[in-house]
Amino acid sequence: MNQYKPLEELVTRSQALGADQSLVVYGGGNTSSKGEINDYLGRLRAVLWVKGSGADMQYAVARDYPALYLDELRELTQFDDLDDETMVDYVTRALVDPTSRRPSIETLLHAFLPAKHIDHVHADAICALTNHPRGEAAVKEALGDGFAYVDWKRPGFALSKVVGALKDYEGVVLAHHGLVVWDEDSQLCYEKNIAIVGKANAYLDSLSKRPASKFIHQDLPTSELNELLLKMRGTLGKKQVLRVDTRLAEVASRSDLSDVLAAGVSSADHMMRIRPKSAQATIQDPVSGIEKYRADYSEYFESNKGLLPAGYTSHGNDPKVVLVPGVGAITTSPTLPEAAMLADIATHTHQVAAQVIDAFGEGSPLPDSEIFGFDYWPMELFKLKNRPAPLVFTGHIFIVTGAGSGIGRGIALELGRLGANVVLADLDEAGLKTVQSEFTAAKCAQPLLVVGDQSDEATVARTVAESISHFGGIDGVVINAGIGVSDNLDDLSAEKWRKGLEINLSSAFLMTKEVITAFKSQNMGGSIVYVASKNAFAPGAGFGGYSVTKAGMLQLMRIAAIEGGGSGIRANAVNPDAVFDNSKLWEGGIREQRAAAHGVKPEELEDFYASRNLLKARVRSLDVANAVAFLLSDKSSRTTGSVIAVDGGVAAAFPR
Ligand SMILES: [Zn+2]
Predict the structure, then answer these.
(1) Which of 179, 437, 450, 605 is in the most buried spot, having the most CB atoms within 10 Å?
(2) At residue 340, what are phi and psi to the nearest 5 degrees?
(3) How many CB atoms lie under 10 A from the CB of residue 87?
């Protein structure tokens, strides 16, 4: 006999429930099955498999469901109450495998109910039934007398005991929280859940006083949306991603939006991710809505901080979600995937609040003290503890031009490894895709690719605009796109000269102009790093068309530093020399030409360059990337108008 059949059924059922975000989102809810297995001494023992804390049902696998000895858990009913820590301690001791993941904080609810299969979901429809002053009556009307109604109580030992005593009902509705159903058969348990949620939805629809929606959302023009994002990011004043989501556009456009937001989150666990409330702002004025939110949160924190558990401080006064009429929701986070997750949760939570108001006329949030208790509840915050620590550039947004190969590729990858959200711009689409796959392989945040010629004004404008629309702002740009321009002056064609100027220098001017404008709108300073060249200070024969553009770039950098300083915008340059790894600069005869100029064979060029610098070192793109990262970071916050040589030491090219 397969002792693990109940576990297999549990995994399958959980995946099905988790696939529907109107039932659970991102680690919410929990499910269990009971069975018998042989323990380490061969004894047949009753066990409970229950979802691990924070596990996402959608992606359920067997190891997300630790097994616990049921008799050990049921012994705990002898206590009248247990505090959270003691309960977790006792539950942990009942684990069949002490090294398995921490079981759900709601484990005892599953242990105290006798049914073989139990599902607990935070269904939107069930929350909509309870989040208003007549919750208990609405549950009876919608679902009949078979369901027990339990007023809000924070999950833990006491709630588990209450629910455990309700085994003779068909199921339990937990106000402001969710639903518990059970059955001896796994499939029937799932079907019950779906049927009850369907009943709740039908009831809510029958009550809705709102006429059928004629709402049509129209996207804001990109320039207006970007201006809003920059102003909002600047007001929040933090290096983070802002993501626009139009699913809440209709809710955001309601005349009673403030009532919808005042109704709070639909299921209490949502506040752990999106905060207890969301902010409200307008396109014309993104500032005062955020300032009001901050003042309100600060007041709520100050008046409840007596309840703050030891060792905890304020989460900060900033919103995670801002609703803007005509736009929808803007969510803030260090990364785009997390911002998308917040948007998913916000969509469910605020749509439930809107549904409550339409059906019952008013919502009723939990009292502030209960909200605070959950907002700062160590047991829920545990779920967030497993996040990776932030990296130096977490939440930062940078553009790198010429990122499809060579130094640009090296810089982009290093910024990605340091946690940045990176925009890769290059003419070479295939090169960009290769670098993108390197980002994936290195488990860096997915970059945004912008294909186009950076000496074209429209392309530069599009590069900056797409960066802002995609990531919500801009913190720095690395101006690196360029080509080699060889030949002695008397041989250099005017066409070649002009092309070099366009690609190496005019492109740098265009990006400087565009990004300074964006930095000023955002009002958070900004850093521009120019990838110039050793040749800017120490040119050589036969490479003048190139050296002039790089010397011009340094002058451009100085002027950007002078003009940008008053707005906190910094401009600096790096002067690399002879960087060969994966670089296209040496293609098209340049390698052969430079080798001939120095009287060596083409394949000896790397060694030749290394031999003539003071450190006798080959210069790698990573060396350039390290200098660029320093200039983009706050570590260089007092540095502007400077040049860092990354050339192994060339005395003739010392900055002066
Ligand atoms: Zn729950």
Answers:
(1) 179
(2) -70, -40
(3) 21
CB-based contact 427:420 (threshold 8 Å): no
Ligand 1 center from residue 9 Cα (angstroms): 21
Catalytically active residues are: 546
Q: Distance between terminal CA atoms of the chain? A: 82
- pLDDT digit string (tens) for 519-566? 999 999 999 999 999 999 999 899 999 999 999 999 999 999 999 999
DSSP alpha helix (H) spans, 185-285: 186-207, 222-236, 249-252, 257-262, 271-274
Residues whose CB falls within 8 Å of the CB of residue 572, separated by 6 or more in sequence, listed in order: 527, 528, 529, 530, 557, 561, 631, 636, 639, 640, 641, 642, 643, 644
**The residue type at 413:** L
Measured in Å, residue 179 CA sits from the centre of ligand 1 at 8
> Percentages helix, strand, coil for the chain, rounded to the nearest 5?
50, 15, 35
Phi, psi at 163, each rounded to 5°:
-70, -35
Question: What token pair was written down for 168?
Answer: 């003779």
Q: pTM to 2 decimals?
A: 0.93
Name which of 79, 389, 61, 128 is nearest 263 in CA terms: 128
The widest CA-to-CA distance across the chain, in whole angstroms, is 98
Q: How many CB atoms lie within 10 A of CB 105?
A: 26
Given pLDDT bands bounded at 50, 70 and 90, which one contains residue 510? very high
Q: Distance from the CA of 105 to the center of ligand 1, in angstroms?
A: 9
Would you give the DSSP letter of residue 3?
A: T
Give me ligand 1 centre to Cα 122, in Å: 6
For 530-561, give one letter per residue: b (16+ CB within 10 A) or e.
bbbbbbbbbbeebbbbbbbbbbbbbebbbebb
As given in the structure block, the two tokens for residue 110 are: 């599953």
The single-letter code of the amino acid at 350 is: H
Q: What is the pLDDT of residues 291-334, one digit of tens each?
A: 999 999 999 999 999 988 888 889 999 999 999 999 999 999 99
Q: Between the CA atoms of 111, 115, 116 and 122, what dihedral angle is there, to the nearest 10 degrees?
A: -70
Instruction: For residue 103, report the distance from its CA to the centre of ligand 1, in Å.
Output: 13
